[in-house]
Amino acid sequence: MPTITEEVRRAPRRDAAANREALLAAASATLNEHPDAGLEAIASAAGLSRRAVYGHFAGRDELIAALVASGATRLNDIAATLDHPHTPTAIALLGARLWHAVEHVQLLAAMAVREPHVDQVAAALAPVRERVGELVARGIDEGALRGDMYPQTLARLIERAAIAVLLEASVTRIDDAEGHRLVMLSVLGTAGLGWREAGDLIDTAPELAYRPEAPADHDETPADHEEASA
User: I want to staple 144 with a disulfide (CB 3.0 to 4.6 A). Which of 67, 98, 139, 220 is the partner?
Assistant: First the structure.
């Protein structure tokens, strides 16, 4: 059983870890609303001083780099563990999973067009792009997706279709169930399915059904489980 002295020593570490997580959460929320927000605004949102930020990060760029790494890890984990033998269903499912990680996608999309984070975001999301490319190539070979353009071009368009819906949702504030369906309709339409065909697939494939608990089930990483059990 820990002694009082050991507990006192551990307390600052717990406080430091909590402050770091608070800064990351505040930065994510603040930068999603205002991509050019400075450290003062982020620190204020976290309930901390600007000086406290420098106890964890050398500056704004390093804080954003930590956010990019965290968000990309979550999205890459989603892409790596997702598959379905019917390729259009797999692509729709990937879009739906990304919808449930909407805050990470919005942040990464915002940072992807701002220096000095452009190359960093592109490199961090390489596994997601690779997985989309694999699914598209497979679907074209099977004749399940449109074959009138290069696979890599179609993969990029599908990715952008999903991100466009996610960014639009941040403006229009559509509800979770509607966004879940809309992002699947968008990626399937881009992939070459007609709107009726895409709608029928979403309505009949049980894997694509909206479940309110889906974000908790599919956004967790092994680290989340370790933290919960600690």
Answer: 139
